[in-house]
Amino acid sequence: MKLIYDGKTKRVFRRGRFLVFRFKDTVLGHSPGKPDPGGNRVIGRLPGKAELATATAVFFFKLLHGHGIRTHFVRQLSPIDIEVFKTEPIPLEVIYRKSAYGSFLRRYRGFVKPFCKLDMVEFTLKSDELGDPLITRSAIERLRIATQKELQNMEQTTRRAARVLATALADRGLELVDFKLEFGRYAKRLIVIDALNADSMRVADKRRRILGHRELARRLGVSK
Predict the structure, then answer these.
(1) Which pairs with CB-CB distance under 8 Å and at least 24 residues apart come from 218-223?
(2) What is the pTM of this model?
């Protein structure tokens, strides 16, 4: 395998016509001691987190597949490795916000309260250098990042995924707060890429406490 990308939460290797994601023990946040999936900084390490992130991602990939939502997931190779199809990634993050939290509260401070119901989709440009800024549909089209048809497809798929995730979590006494998806072009269609776990989604318990990797994996039944 050849290393082609070394990111904050995983390494990506080329393996023939596939890619291999190797998850890390790194934790994201905005400042030390405050883990947050909305953060773009590595603030520390959690021993065993790679296994938890992998197990959670595989759980959600299989859940989406079971509801007819195509992803790039192929199979799990090891406790920290998964094999995925190689796609042409679209440099956007598609964020579904079921409730107000994180950057949405900071952005609209004074206009919205925590956990206010939203049910909305936002697009951000995937660029750490620029801070993943919000981007309008018009700008996406003008910059030729994606077509109007692709944008509609991404939003519809994200909303479908939100319904599937919210139902599965509610069955376990949990509440979906928000999550982000990424998409890639594969065989002339769009499919979901990257991974869903506590690095890319917020899930709350009945006390509205945001769950970390250990607790989320345990509540999903993928770890003890």
Answers:
(1) 219/172, 219/173, 219/174, 220/56, 220/59, 220/172, 222/52, 222/55, 222/56, 222/58, 222/59, 223/51, 223/52, 223/55
(2) 0.94
